[in-house]
Amino acid sequence: MFARVLAAVTGAGKQCEPRLSNGVRVFSNLRDVNGIPIEVHNDSGSKRVVVTKSLPGDRWLQFLVNAGCRVEVCKHEDIILNNSTIKKLIGSHCDGVIGQLTEDWSSELFGALHAAGGRAYSNYAVGYNNVRVEEATKREIPVGNTPGVLTETTAELAAALTLAAARRVVEADGFMRAGSYRGWLPNLFVGSLLQNKTVGIIGAGRIGAAYARMMVEGHKMNLLYYDPYPNRQLEEYVRRYGELLQQSGEAPVWCRRADSMEEVLQQADVVSLHCNLDASTRHLINAHRLALMKPNAVLVNAARGPCIDEAALVEHLKANPDFRCGLDVFEHEPAMAPGLADCPNAVIVPHIASASLWTRNGMATLAAANVAGVLSGHPVWNKPDVLPFVEGPLEQAPAAAPSIVNAKELGLRLLA
Ligand SMILES: NC(=O)c1ccc[n+]([C@@H]2O[C@H](COP(=O)([O-])OP(=O)(O)OC[C@H]3O[C@@H](n4cnc5c(N)ncnc54)[C@H](O)[C@@H]3O)[C@@H](O)[C@H]2O)c1
Questions:
Q1: Which of 217, 262, 315, 333 is an active site residue?
Q2: GO cellular-component terms in the record (predicted)?
Q3: pTM score
Q4: Taking a C-beta distance cutoff of 8 angstroms, is the pair 139, 114 a contact?
Q5: Site to substitute for ligand 1 among 276, 277, 327, 358, most atoms within 8 A of C-beta
Q6: Cβ(49)–Cβ(23) under 8 Å?
């Protein structure tokens, strides 16, 4: 039925040509698999790869086509696919899947993929808290993710949320659009100055460190961070920047790793979360910890929603009108905690931290290169720099899978 409707609307069955930049002619067909509409690329490919959502760019497709894959992109109208739909897509034979962070990749889906002969899975994300990696490992399925192309883009959105919250940009924008502005006033939308204040980072990994550098360099903020592991490179970077400022006659900035997260919460003017989500970071920010923060602090979350007890945050925002937050992610996405949308002191955006075109194209390329690399029997790339996959001529891309999180557990060969 769905396929018939789609056929009527889109002319399913007709061939259309995707925009491929290297001159490879690959035709796509609109078809259906087990009643689910799909777009097929490289019909004659010998390995069947299912992609659960349309991905941006063309390069990712070239990786899979060059690896001899027939690529089937799901065109189902549901934004979030349930397990039943994904199992129908996997069908009885499937070599690999590129899936989304909104999907529940645990025993049920890895069981279905394994039964269909699946040998590769990649998340289209750097975070993989939606994946039960041990369930894939048990079935000898390598799991890929896409680190290295989200860092600066995600950090920039965290910085944008910080500024928007501190300077009340969204509130003021709404005021203008409502036609409420009748003239300049000394007290109109007064916010907080960031310059020379203290920024606190929870999780100083790739994104946390990039965000920290933006806030330190851009606003000369001091840096207090909490992470179970020290980030010596970041500490050294800030130390040298502080020296540079001093040489120019300005006050130096400092960087310190806090002994506890509580210390960061108590002392920082801005706190930004950049830890991964696991059992230890779920509800990391709760009512008790919110109460430790300065009443006019800014809290930013571009990590994962469940890191914050969102109901407690709503209560805190209501009780402390000068406290502000910037949220990219939500505890029960796509829903928001009741009352959050009514808090003028919250800036809220729909999980767009990685949404720059360069990053989204890069994520697609890395996810495809993971699946193509594993299905081709290539080794695993073992360097943090993934740009050779993402940029430059395709023929010069490394013959490797860029990032396989269970490579060690599966004893996969690393690129020498
Ligand atoms: N909003 C988005 O669109 C978006 C985009 C990219 C990444 N992310 C999220 O950001 C997270 C971080 O990404 P990354 O590339 O910087 O990862 P990363 O692994 O480089 O950094 C995570 C850091 O968190 C630290 N950490 C772990 N547990 C902690 C704890 N209890 N307290 C403090 N620190 C802790 C780790 O030691 C590590 O340094 C990802 O796991 C993902 O969930 C979100």
A1: 333
A2: cytosol
A3: 0.89
A4: yes
A5: 276
A6: no
